[in-house]
Amino acid sequence: MLRIIDARTGEPVDAAPARRGLTRVEVHAPGSDLTNLRVLLVADLLVRALELGGTPVWALLTGGHRQAELRADATALGIRPFEDSPDVGAGLGEAQIVHVTVEGGTAPDGVRIAVAPVETPGSATSVGETAGSGLPVGEAAKSGPPGGRPAEPDPQARESTKSTPPSGRSGEPGLSGGESAGSGLSGGWSGDSGLSGGESAGSGLSGEPGLPGGWSGEPGLSGGRSGEPGLPGGESAGSGLPAGEPAASNPPGGQSVGSGPLGGVDPAVLRLALLARHHSAPVRLEADVLGEAQATLARWRGAVARWARRPSRPVPDDVRRRLRDAWDDDLDVPRVLDVLRGVENEPDLPDGARFETYAYADRLLGLELTRDLGAPS
């Protein structure tokens, strides 16, 4: 049974105290920066874990004036849609209501999951938000100076900026195919539980100041194409394009990710980087953290594609138990990832069992680990 730590008391509580009883998950995310996106990601994990255990869930989002931007980035990150939170009053007779909010945030009384912030190196400001402004990095306040008159430009400043190209422009590489193979499940809603398979979009995002280590919308950083994960150093495998030259092709299906706080990072890589830390611990999105997530995701997708060519074998009982024990223990996703690393390196495990294990765990993780099935070796 899934147990979570109630942030009000520090004590574990049952996320679904009544078997098969409805649980309402209500997200409180007033902004659109990466900290608020992480809040929504943790709620997505909670919904997936509850549904894997057979619990029906009503998922709601209480957002602020930047809710549209938050929803767009959430879709890119493979987060399932949440309903707008109405004035629910007594609700629908839920057995449990769980509020998911940023650490130190406000929420109605009830069981609460507090999500630690996302930070940039050397700053306590959340990635994607300018300190004190409440606006994402790269977005200026729209109101003018007091008195309603436009500010006079400083001639010196004007001269110094003449040779500086405007930021926020970049090529838009294609998006990932977004289909999960192997279990007969599409990359959208998966299996009997109706879980999101975690659509992954290619980067296509402009560079934003304040992002770590040059992860700023350069082609080759995104893994966005099936069978061709991006390479560190700004060059895409097989593309022959140097860093800084955008791909000429348009995204398939007309989809693209907006210039929100994702800041040019492949959404699937960002999702894994955020999952690698427990939600109670802050995340520092330094270049080496994102690089490790990118390498791990590319390696696992390639391995899963190879294992899929071998005869299928069931998930070993002890492996399934360890996976469930991990995510039932306050959504301990880092422990889930550790189990997968062990399965990857276990010499006596059949490849078919490795494949089924990764496909099973991906119902929680939403990383599209089976995306590269059928891609050229």
Automatic annotation (TrEMBL):
Name this protein carries in UniProt: Uncharacterized protein
Compositionally biased intervals (Basic and acidic residues): 151-161
Gly residues compositional bias, start-end: 174-237
Region (Disordered): 121-262
Annotated Low complexity bias: 238-254
